[in-house]
Amino acid sequence: MSQHLAPTMTATQSPPVMEARRWLAAATLPEGLELLNVSQAAPVAPPPPPLRAAMIAAIEEDDGSHLYGPVLGLPELRETLANSMTGRYGGAVKDSQIAITSGCNQAFAAVMSTLAAPGDNVILPVPWYFNHQMWLQMTGVEPRALDTGPSLLPDPEAAAALIDARTRAIVLVSPNNPCGVEYPDALISAFRDLARARGLALIVDETYRDFDSRSGAPHSLLQDPDWDDTVISLYSFSKAYRLTGHRVGAIATSPARLAQVEKFLDTVQICAPQLGQRAALWGLKHLEDWLAGQRDEILARRTAMETAFQRLPGWELLGCGAYFGYARHRLGLPSDQLAERMVSEIGVLALPGTMFAPKGAPRGAEEMRFAFANIDETGIRELAERLGTYTPS
User: Fold this and answer.
1) Where are the domains positioned within the chain?
2) Measured between alpha carbons, how far is residue 134 from residues 8, 104, 171, 220, 359 in Å?
3) pTM of this prediction exceeds 0.85
């Protein structure tokens, strides 16, 4: 029997992190070297003990932890997150503007399902977050590449030149994945103004906002009383509270759009995991000081990364922040070949720039992402030492 596969699905790249794991499974590490895994931007430690205790209590004492819940999320979590965002950003966010999703990737998919149909296009700055590009491609929506050049900052005027009658949205990620760059408020506001003037949505993925190096609000978008006519903010609790396996994300947008999001969520999963939602709620209420300490640790690792890459032969650090360092190499091999060789030759697992750019884009072959959040400062120095003495065989 022949297989019938959707062309949009078969044309979509394989999941990059899974591809990197296949390299690891096929490789033999250099003798005497432990693997430095800087491929995936996810905490490897479990939630802190007080949060785990609260989750155990919820399993044992809260029957709702095991049942279906409201499609748009636990009401108390929606309200608490809205209040938290209001306090952080100024302006006003209401619980009716919040939906809870099964992770931030689902938040993106749900929002895009309300915005774009096959044949439409969405503007993505390059280097892009690969799962954004993958979702668009597999649903028949064109990911329209907006190159960010050496600054890694997207240009609103260049974006304006890409807009046509089928453009539905512009997507920004700040702090950026894969580049680590924090977009200035003025730049994000300029994109909001462009999107509003052209009748588009501006989607701002803020998965890493808890690790932004700036004090105060990272942008002023939500201070606009009409913010939800244009702006859609996405968030993940996974990085903040180490809840990756429990899949809890969020959308902030208009109640009218959430009425459409509800259709998507009900069809795909009905509701986000109940235990994860209760864990996120407990974290919002009780872990502010702990999270501040986690932020300090990530910022210290960022500084260590910047220091380690200074004058590193063959490498130039283009961007650094949140969980990521993004670098250009001059080692004479395309980055996808280089990344695979590095596993067996120096025991480093990182993702090549080809996974964050359109196929054949020159910059993809020259760049690489290092997710440094899961190695300490000693590990960062070891990474730099291995890279600095490395010549591909």
Assistant:
1) 7-46+290-388, 66-286
2) 10, 14, 14, 30, 12
3) yes
